[in-house]
Write the structure tokens for this entry.
Amino acid sequence: MGVELQIQTESSPCEIKKPLLQIYKLSKAFPGVQALANVSLDVFAGEIHALVGENGSGKSTLAKCIAGVHQPESGQIFFNGEQVNFHSPLDARLAGIATIYQEFSLIPSLTVAENIYLGRYPRTRAGFVDWAKMRRDTLAVLESLSLTLEPDSIVGSLSVAEQQLVEIAKAISLDAKLLIMDEPTAALGLRESRRLMELIRHLTQQQKAIIYISHRLDEVYQIADRVTILKDGKRIDTVSINALKMSDMVRMMIGFDIDQHYPKEHNARPETLLYVDRISTENGVREVSFDIKVGEVFGLGGMLGSGRTEIARAIYGADRIVSGQLILDGKTITCRSPKDAVAQGIGMIPENRKSDGCFFNFEGTKNITISRLVELLRGPFLDLSLERKYGEMYIKRMSVTPTALERSIQYLSGGNQQKVIIARWLFSKARLLIMDEPTQGIDIGAKLEIYRVINELTANGISILLISSDFPELLALSDRIAIVRNGRVVEITDANKLTEYRLMAIASGVSELEITELKN
Amino acid sequence: MDFLRKISRSTLIGPLGAFLLVAIIVSFATPRFLHPQNLANVSLQVATVAVVAIGATLVILTGGIDLSPGSTVALVTCTLAILVKNMGLPLPIGIFLVLILGLFCGAINGFFSSYGKIPSFIVTLATMSIYRGVAFLITNGTPIFSVSPALEPLFYGKFLGIPLPFYYVVVLYSLAALYLRNTISGRAIYAVGGNESAARLTGLSVNGTRMLAFTFSGVTAAIGGVLLAAWLNSGSPNYGQELGLQSIAAAVIGGASLVGGYGSMFATLIGALTVAIVQNGLNLLAVPASWQEITLGIVIVIAVGFDMWRTRIFQSIRHLRKKTPVDML
């Protein structure tokens, strides 16, 4: 697959300039896998260049080769016109390449200024830390980015979005010319994402180059100038974003056509499963009422912090309900803890899979059966061979990789982990499944599988309470959507009568007029 | 190749390696080590630590730590001596009562470190001091000797020519292993230690599980206390000083992770044996006590270190052999 180095003159916005970063026929293999094969790429100053592809397509490996984390086996990297050979991330950093990872490298107990100048505090002549200078310099950096953060704030007290901004400020203070951002909005809400986008655009005005890695194609369309699509370690194409339809991009990424991006089936039945009757909690859920039908996907739409997660937590017994009631199958139920909710046939796919969902000390089977161990009892003891049979059955049914039978699920991909957790609730025979951001951070192929699973679940009469920040996804998957703002349900509508813009408008409390403007 | 990968993934390789290494070194250093009489001695020496380490492992598996069993042991020996010698209660009743006492000691630890939301390190640091203090209080600080003629045979007795403590260890470890592997609450102990938040969201009772583990630890400490009392036919507030740390050492050498969720009963038993052999070997060589403690520390570092480096060591072996698929990219 000898892809020649080519600059697409007609589509590039920077055709007269020389590229800031040039990659020529880069290859990298790990034992058993050719992670990158002859990949060529060029990135210009002032350009936002998106890298897209499924998990395992090589985009992270490519980013890590550029950032000096991995050393390529063959191929050349030219940065600023010179051939470079980074042996460590520090080399790359010194040359002016900064990477902003999903997991932050900030120290929560230190201030913004201390974090930005970590390991290189300015000194006075006497050799003490020059706090005044550090504060001044920090202010200057923050100002250059038009950020309104306080240099003295403790980083741990900032929101995730603000921490991300600090991370970027840190990179800028190091005089980075190229910023690599790996899923920067994965943990952000819509408004915060938008703010980040503005900042990124601002950076391009300062002639910084950005390599932007994301699973969220809508974002890529919002921000990128050009996009490079990788699949199985090979470059499929590099195109100007204006010249590419989203469906074509998806096809290039997964290698086959999907008729519909979201293969939604409508399986809602007339009977009501759960009636939520004017529930309120101490943490801001106010008089929320709605009902979920059997086999329905009921979406909760809202901005981050709107109270949608809190509503789900209240139903699940994780937060206390101070007034109102839950009626399941016509009977009032009380869920004082998740234990009660599980016993009532409710299951939860938590937003943060790693910290709230996975047992990394267990292989797949034990992760599945943990939700209903009573099923395995023979007398007082667990029947381990029966457990294994169940494990094989569910892992096959959810088409999880068979590795899950033998090894800890820490070795599985995000999509496979998510399917193991869904299988857990299939095994517990849950009738209502609360899914909080079920497709966050997993690749398109795995997303499609999750959509397929949702269809299968609802066809079997399982109801789903879906929370997603990905509004197109929420709209496409839900039968009905309750829009949440400030802990209240503002509106309940059929999903097919709602557009993304209207959903966003109502959820953010912006007048519809303003939103129509934003659309254009 | 498959075999190699299995070994590299087996969590027993580190503990077994450390155990064999120590055993080989000791048997070369002193021929008396392999003498049947001495091996019988080792099995006596290992019994108390091994029994106490059962509870320590359960607590460590939930992600907690129990520093207090040594003090519980002391309190149990004193109480048993007072109940049987001073108050004249029949020995079986005395033993039954001190087991209940151990259960309470453990339950107190468990209550405060689960429902009370105080870190278990702090709770058991406090009760370590309190339980021993109570032992001093009830004995006025003086050991009570010759508790009961019926007590010693519990430790020195033999069945089919094998000392009784051997059977205690085998039976208790089998029960504990069965509990961990094949019961719902045993599985919950692993789950809570592996991911507390996920355990709660899956509907397990996190506090209940923690409480149970500490209670078990109190009971095994009490059994250890009865064994120690029988061994020395006495009760003293100074007994068991080193047992708390040794039991944790046994679990850790056995590969239990202090973060919780990783470890097994069999591995802890190997760890306890390693600790006992180090002590026995150094005793035979007439090494002063200070050096024994230093050696034990070094063994802990080597055993745990090998476990941590294991993955990398085996990876480099595989790299030398080339051609192995790495299935975790």
Notes: Chain B touches chain A at residues 9, 178, 181-184, 187, 190-191, 193-195, 197-205, 261-262, 318-319, 322, 324-329 (CB under 8 Å).
